Structures are given as C-alpha cells and as structure tokens.
Amino acid sequence: ARLRGPHLTIDAALDPWFVRAHRAPLERAVVNILDNAVKFSPEGGVIRVRLERGALTVRDHGPGIPAEDLPHVFDRFWRSPSARSLPGSGLGLSIVARTVRDIGGTVTLAPARDGEPGTLATISIPGAPVRPPGEPE
Are 83 and 43 in contact (CB under 8 A)? Predict the structure, then answer.
C-alpha cells in the first residue's frame, strides 16, 4: 500500500476467533481483497479494515462497482469493463469466493453505505471464541 499511496486504517478486535481452514488459502483470500482495495483506491485515499469475530470488512474509496457488474464479480476471468485498463487476470475474487465458501463462510461486495464512492467487501467465516475440544494448540 505504501507504494501506491492509499492510507490503511486497521481496527481489529484481538479476541481469539477459531476457524477450521487451511491457513495459506485463507491468507491468499484476505490478500486478494486487500490488493483490490489498494488497486482501486486513489492515491492519498483511505482504506478502512476491520476484523472482529470472524468478519473482515474492507472499505475503500475507489470508484465503486457499477450495479450491473455486481452479479459477475466472483465469476472466473470476469473483469469489469471499467477495470480492464488495470492489471489483473479476473481470478482474484473468484479465488476469494471459492476459498471462503469452501469453509462455510460468505463473501460480499457492495457499494459503500455512507453516500461516498467506494466498495465495502466483507468476508465472514464461522468459528468460535474458544478452541474446539481436541484441536491442537
């Protein structure tokens, strides 16, 4: 993010949240969501990241996603006509969706709700605040 210029604000609850997932694919999904926020944010823009009880929300101040594009954003190789001039293969969000759904979670992209331009990405993963019995430390 430092190279592109957006300012990243992170608000994370440090309470444990135990999930059943392979670490590497889940990390890749989170990186893909954050990478999109950086890619579409203007220089000097703000990206807000919040993590609490298995829910990660990423709010950018980019141009947002046109309503007619929202049904397609998780399709493999699909790229919005408005984003085709930017680098990317159209695989990132499909990987996010598959990874999150494979562990019983949900992922959504929606217009920002505060009346300003931008997108709100949310990944929610089921889990618990305590380690399940029999799980290794």
Answer: no
